[in-house]
Write a structure and sequence with these properties.
By secondary structure, this protein is α+β, with helices and mostly antiparallel strands. The protein has 9 helices and 7 strands; from the N terminus they run E-E-E-H-H-E-H-H-E-H-H-H-H-E-H-E. The protein binds flavin mononucleotide.
Amino acid sequence: MSDVLNANTIIVDGKQRYYEPAPTNMNVEAFRQVVTSRRSVRKFTDKPIPKAVLDDCLDMAMLAPCSSGLQPWEFYVVRSKDKKAKLVKACMSQYAAKTAAELIVCVARTDRIGDYAQKVLHDWPTPNMPPLVKRYYQLIPYNYAPGPLNSFGMLKKAAVKVGGLVTPLPRGPYTSKDLDLWAAKSTALACENLVLAFRAHGFDTCMMEGYDEHRVRKLLKLPNGALPIMVIGAGERADDGVFFPQIRFDRKLFIHEV
Ligand SMILES: Cc1cc2nc3c(=O)[nH]c(=O)nc-3n(C[C@H](O)[C@H](O)[C@H](O)COP(=O)(O)O)c2cc1C
């Protein structure tokens, strides 16, 4: 039994719940056009990206789903002439970096889990945080902490190995490497949102992992818990900005119905 109370409250089986029904006026062809017209662009014109467009794209990037809602990402829009020149060099002077109107370094953060779990507890958007959710966020800093030389993680791994014999349990993250992967997943999703948002605004991008991580870290003074995931070059596509037709293998290689 359900009964809509107002725009975002519904009563289900006597309990008040948040209510956000799926919008129905979606335009799949507009989405398809964005997805299919996205290409990795290696040569941009010198047209600047309006600040409002850049900000809108970054805002859409940060609407990407993220593990436990912890938003383990950061975007460094490198604007200073000096820093930009250094970043282009760190990107091995790739054409896509050299000609881009904007260069954005996308960074995954594993060192803010505790702070952001606190922030979720503090900023929770409804008056009563469900007790189980509250407990989950209170425990996150302990659950995710690998400890010195991954010692806590290894203890947790042993406990999960035993507990996992009787019930399904999440296997990790245990080590600091696991945490890197944990943060990289969500950050890469935000990167995809970012490039699609630029495309939807009529601009183009090139994701780049061909860079010298040491130099990028130094340039941005990144701490240990920060992991550069990719540099995104963005701008207006030059007419000859896409160098090759798109290659995608037969879908049968990748899609398995099991
Ligand atoms: C994580 C990642 C890293 C990439 N690094 C580079 C790069 O350093 N330089 C480059 O020119 N393209 C780079 N690319 C672009 C790929 O080469 C490109 O996506 C692929 O060839 C498919 O072409 P398409 O994006 O036009 O469909 C990268 C793409 C991804 C997803």
